[in-house]
Amino acid sequence: MKRRRLISLLLVFMLLASPLCAFAADAGYHPDAYDGALPFSDSLYAADEIAGEARVTFEYLRAEQAVPDDMPEIGCRAAYLADPVSGKVFFEKNAHAKMYPASTTKILTALLVLENCDPDDMVTVSQRAIDLVPEGYTTAALQAGESLSVYVMLQALLIPSANDAAYALAEHVSGNIEAFASLCNDRAKALGCETLHFVNPNGVHDEDHYCSAYDLYLIAGECRKYDVFNEIVSTKYFTVPATDRYPRKDRIYTNTNELLLPYSGNFYADCTGIKTGHTTPAGECLVSSASRAGLDLICVVLGGRILDDENERFSDTITLLDYVYENYSYKKIADQRKPLAQVNIDNAVKDTPMLNVVLQTDIFSVAPNSVNEDNVITEIDLPEELKAPIQKHQVLGTVTYRVDGLIYSANMIAGNEVIKKPFWLYNLLVSLAAALMLLFVVAAVRRSARRKKRRAQRMKNSAQ
Questions:
Q1: Whether residue 440 has pLDDT greater than 90
Q2: Running DSSP on this structure, what letter comes out for residue 259?
Q3: Reported pTM
Q4: 81 - beta bridge partners?
Q5: Please, what is the angle between helix 150-158 and helix 106-116, to 10°?
């Protein structure tokens, strides 16, 4: 009776101590059935996700950007040159000073037209729009009463810099010039312009009409979001179509931006726009855009001069663009195919103990030519301990790259699956060990019982 009680107590103890009690809760889990939350006891990543759409965030810290020793010198009184995608600044000179913009004003006029009109809308030219143009200012010979599409009017505005088109578009959008000027100022403020105050849609000189090089950079960057704008500002030649008020097709104009014209001495093959400007008080002005090998730039120069038949708005712009393209490039700084780390996972099966930690996506950046994948400053944020099971593409942590003022952050993910050692095998081994122990105990009890029986028999025989 005592022997049976001892055996029963041993069995109860082993069942309570064995992981078999926990096995039922884990038996239904399989990596293929992953639902976004791993069992808490199996992983440090109870709330980890499987990577979906690649996400790369970045910020620009000007203080971390190196200042080159060979910065170019220019004659224009103000300038601003930057990458509109990242905001990275390559050059600035009096960038926030109050300047007269002349016809670069028309970039903001174009933005408001694009935001408030359809390119196919028809604009009827008023006599007032024609009469408002001061003598000596450029026009497209528009006629009172003729109707032209918004698209054609934008061409007239931006290619030959027609002031009659500017007034006609302003009236079409706002009804009158004063209301349109107010709309310009409100929109500029919303964009983050710090200096700008406009009183007309075309830059006809007025002491109260001014902005900064930085303001024009912001406006141009917003305009570049419109394909229609990009198409027009890169057009070399333009003809105003015939209308019932002007039946001839002789209103033919050339773009005032010589950077676009192959026959000019200022041709720049990478130039994609945007707009010139000139008045005597404003000097020579140019807002330009360029693109080479994935690196897009917007350059603003204001207050240039004409010296020995050289127009500083073009020569300075070429100097600045060449400076950037010769020293910087748009390049891959991190490759998702190259493991960031290889981690040995202790509780993994023998066939998958090694985890490759990889990027979720390639990362590209504007960087000095001296920077490459091997010398980018890299900061990895990965937990000290990783445990199986781990799914392929599971988000494990983040990595940060610092590239000359630009800081990129992206997910690090599992490049391969890591399978946990089978739980049933562990339980089987424990159970076998328990069974052996039980057999040992039973055998010991039986031996003890036999010895007692023999001893009792000997005592009985002695008594006889």
A1: no
A2: G
A3: 0.80
A4: 91, 299
A5: 170
